[in-house]
Amino acid sequence: MFGKKEEGDPVYSGLTHTEVQQILQQAGYRAVVEQGSQAPFIKSAVSGINFSIFFYGLQADTGKASSLRFFAGWRVGTDREGSLQKTNDWNARRRYAKAYVDEENDICLDMDLVTSKGVSRAQVADVIEVWSLVLGEFVNFMRSQAS
What is this structure's pTM? Predict the structure, then answer.
């Protein structure tokens, strides 16, 4: 786990939405490609928690992205101060993903993956596994803070 390159696993400089979709599906996740206003993105879920993967730095000729953004967000109402405190508590104690409150008072969780310098399918699968774990931990953390 965590970056172990398997024999015969090529290194990709950038990834297309189709390649990421295949990696997700091979790992047992639902992966639906949708067209966003700027570029395609992937909708998926883990343990009933919806998330999206957005593609940045797309090369016009290949469709490969130089980075990916894993994203989940929740509408929580108007308690901005309480939401800010919870997300700050999370960020102070956790690694890998950042939590924040957006301009609409939604709680969001992000994690980035740079692909432009080379990444294998095994490494991407590892990042997906880390995202799944962090996402579950974040939801449990936020639920524990609700009381």
Answer: 0.89
